[in-house]
What does this fold into?
Amino acid sequence: MIAYGLVTCNETNRLQEGIEIYTLFETNCSDEARSRCAMQLSQFVRQRQGNGWRALLPFAVADANPSIRRQAAFLALTLAPSSEADRFPGAAELVRLICSPPVEERSPIAMLDTIMSLADLRFMPYLQRISSSLPDNRLARLLKESTATPNALSCSWLLDVLETRADLADAVTACLTGMPSRTGEVLDVIIPIPSWHFKGEAVQNLHGWTIPEYYARMASRLQDRVSPEQLASIQSSWS
It folds into this structure.
């Protein structure tokens, strides 16, 4: 899988072929082996200064294990070098896959959760592409299935969705209500991207809020945009 990925990584029209090969790879390898393979592949990509990041897309799209899909999506996003066309081409490609007719039903939510969980506001334009492109039924389904963490990026985007697409109030409420149980703090961070460009790859925390503190920051934007019952559900989960 590593050899195939690195040989075909610069060709943008071979993802479906890569998924078909990945199916055979998945059948014959354990979850641990596939995860280790993704990490080995990422090391090759780092050594090549980002060349080859697309080789991680079959892992992100087709693996049966959501943890491996999220791992591969994060690696692809953070390893992809900037280009003249896009500052974060890894994010742009994940968004394209999310907004296209699904190549594989199990893939979009892992890719969306990966972007949402970056907690870096530089990725807001990519999330906005999703909310402006997906029809209500597809976006509502993704939001209700999301396991993203609360952070400055994910919460701000959900509030934007609520303001521009009122029909999705149920889905936004479900997403917001599920978030606080996944972390103890809401963070505003900067992520070194592309990661191979930096000596230190550690995420830089800029600021953090407790769960109740961040709810207080959101409260004014929630009022009058959700029903009293929805507001009570969100407030209860963030208290």
The first strand starts at residue 186 and ends at 190. The chain has 13 helices and two strands. The mean pLDDT is 91. The longest helix spans residues 31-47.
